[in-house]
Amino acid sequence: MQDQDFILQTRGLSVYYDTKKAVTDVDLDVVRNRITAIIGPSGCGKSTLLRCFNRMNDLIPSARVEGQVLFDGLDLYGHDVDPTEIRYEIGMVFQRPNPFPKTIYDNVAFGPRINGFQGNLAELVERSLVRAALWDEVKDRLNASALSLSGGQQQRLCIARALAVEPRVILMDEPCSALDPIATLAIEELMRELSEDYSIVIVTHNMQQAARVSHYTAFLMVEEARVGFLVEFGESRQIFTNPEDERTEAYITGRFG
Amino acid sequence: MAVIPQSEFQRRQARRKWMGRAFHGLCLLSVCIALGMLAVLLIYLLQQGVTGIDWSFLTSFPSRHSDKAGIKPAMLGSIYVVLVAGVVSFTLGVATALFLEEYATRSKFATLAKINIANLAGVPSIVYGILGLQIFVHSMHLGNSVLAGGFTLALLVLPIVIVAASEAVRAVPPSLREGSYALGATRWQVIWRMVIPQAFPGILTGVILAVSRAIGETAPLIAMGALTFVPFTPDSPLSRFTVLPIQIFNWTSRPQEGFRETAAAGIIVLLVILLVMNAGAVILRNRFQNKWE
Amino acid sequence: MVRADFDRSLEELEAELIGLGEMVEKAIVKSMDALERRDLALAYEVVAEDDQIDEKRFELEEKCINLIATQQPLAVDLRTLLAVLHIAVELERMGDYAEGIGKICMIIGEDEPVETPQQLGQMARMGVAMLQRSLKSLMDRDTDLADEVWDSDDEVDALYDAVCHQIFLDMGQNPKTIEAATHFLWVAHDLERIADRATNIAERVIFVVTGRIGRYKPPGELN
User: Fold this and answer.
1) A23, B82, B284, C14: least CB-packed within 10 angstroms?
2) What pLDDT is stored for residue C171 in this prediction?
């Protein structure tokens, strides 16, 4: 995996909640403009790991992070790094769609507004909705409440919202698990399109989704002390046809947890 | 399903149905009793007092003659005092609630504070009157003024606002906060742009409750020095005042027959003001709620 | 066990594949037997029984497709199912060659007995051995055994060259036997192909175990 263009890298990343270790010593490289999937059984720390990338773990008082997370060479946990600045560059989409109880327009405009955006807001909103493959469905009702959209549309709205602040990375925490299969496929299609311009990291418990959608896959596992660790990381087509580690194989063939 | 014989099952089922209906009836009866009593009160009031309400009643000053007595100073006094109490308790209450729920959650200090606030709601209102007398009237040199009265009542109803606002802030789904943070919002932005607008209907409910309570308070205001006979209208925040409940109480303790009608008329005015304030707040709340849905 | 049903299906599938292999083995042995003894009735049986081999292959194919569609197999499960699919085809083609030998026997008939070149019998025995070994290597997931199949193929090729050479000489010396000789050439070709198919099966076994796709490389040459 040398000579690749990495946008995010972790070195010896460990996460603690108070004194309990949740994730240990992860070295992960996320390739620019590709989709990287993180898979693993429940409780292995996938979401915890994901939330390290945009410092959302800061919101949990008992969480503590050790090690390095490099974003284009910059250590995200360095002394003079402002978490809110990071989150403009590294956006996040959550498991259950969480549109704000505002209009569709205001949802997408929220990020730019709090960022002090001065330019043409309407155009930015339209561009974001187009890129999230939602524009055609909502262009005539931008002032309708976001809560009137279907589940799949709401999730695409959340994606548009994240895109509006023009990040370089989009983190997705099981973005399709609350959606029906058709909406899921639509989001996967969208992910593939977006990966040309954005780097995407997706946590998923759906193996087939990881196989369908990602270019690279990381497999995390949890050991007896309930600490998550990285087992294997490689190109998805390798991981899903012939993984190197037998634990990876046991997991993806469904022979355990 | 043959665990119990059919006949036994039917008997038990019949009994269950009967019990269900009896319970339903009991609840209905309770509602009727409560509403009935309210209806009786209202009818009595209206009978007694509606004839006494005319423009002169609303615009005159109290007097020793029941047919010349008016309610203007008391009405204005109530409105001003409750306004002050409302504004102060709203500001302090929301700020406290935000501090407890957003900034200091789970610290020992916050837990201690919450327990004490809950306790404050049970303190007899006269205690607030005495407190108000000491602090606002004497130490802060506000005298027996509208301002001091308003502050006193604000303290009284503060726990109500804090509790309601806390509930409302707590009810804002964490997913909305997370979503805001993930877009790069600072803590202040999350509170100002997401939490407060979402919690606003709940906060307004708290204010409604507080104002309703405040407008009916008598003892604490008497304790801090409100007048019972006021021949002038309060013209500044520092002027002396009286409020409707005190005025009504004053009238009910007069021996003359005519004052019974006057008192009833006063109560009706009080209720009307209360209703109007409530309705206003409810309309405001609904407007905010509909905006979000 | 989490996927007991699926595991059972896979085991049954492999067992049926081995069963198909045994059918093919019998067919090859029978057909050579018929040829050597000029037993026309036996030859006829071989030809008739090839239908069963074909049917079995399609049955296996269908089961594989079913499992692929319903079980979303990945990694070793996927490789196993694909290998079973391929090996079934190889076996069916081997059965076809046996059928071909049977037909040739029927064509030669009770003609003027020309001696069946003994290398043909040798080739057949080796081919059957290779088939058995390749199927065993699948059962045991034994890549060393699979490698051995490849080694045997060289011997079969050598025999093939020798027998062809021999037949050409005979043809030259005895023009009256040209027709029979041509048939024998065809049998030799079929037997050589049978051995080849066995090596294909060995390749698939290596694919299942190591995930490697491609032409066989002796262990020394793999980097």
Assistant:
1) B284
2) 86
**Tens of pLDDT along C170-219?**
888 888 888 888 999 999 999 999 999 999 999 999 999 998 887 777 76
Contact B58, B75 (CB under 8 A): yes
> Is residue A257 domain-resident?
no
Q: Which residues of chain A does B106 touch, with a Cβ-Cβ cutoff of 8 Å?
A: 61
CB B182 within 8 A of CB A162: yes
Q: What is the CATH number of the domain that holds C144?
A: 1.20.58.220
The domain total for chain C is: 1
Do B35 and B230 contact (CB within 8 A), yes or no? no
pLDDT at B30 over 90: yes
Please give, rounded to a whole number of angstroms, the shortest distance from the CA of B116 to a CA of chain A.
25
Residue A75 counted as domain residue:
yes
In a domain, C223, yes or no: no
Examine the pLDDT at A4 and tell me if it is beyond 80: no
State whether CATH 1.10.3720.10 applies to domain B58-292: yes
Residue-wise pLDDT for C78-120, tens only, equals 999 999 999 999 999 999 999 999 999 998 877 666 778 888 9
- State how far the alpha carbon of A157 is from the alpha carbons of A41, A91, A105, A138, B121, in Å: 29, 13, 10, 10, 44
Residue A234: list chain C partners with CB under 8 A.
none
For chain A, say whether C1 makes contact (Cβ under 8 Å): yes
Interface of A with B in 81-140 (CB under 8 A): 84-88, 91-92, 94, 96, 98, 100-102, 110-111, 114-115
> In this predicted complex, what is the ipTM?
0.94
Cβ B106–A111 below 8 Å, yes or no?
Answer: no
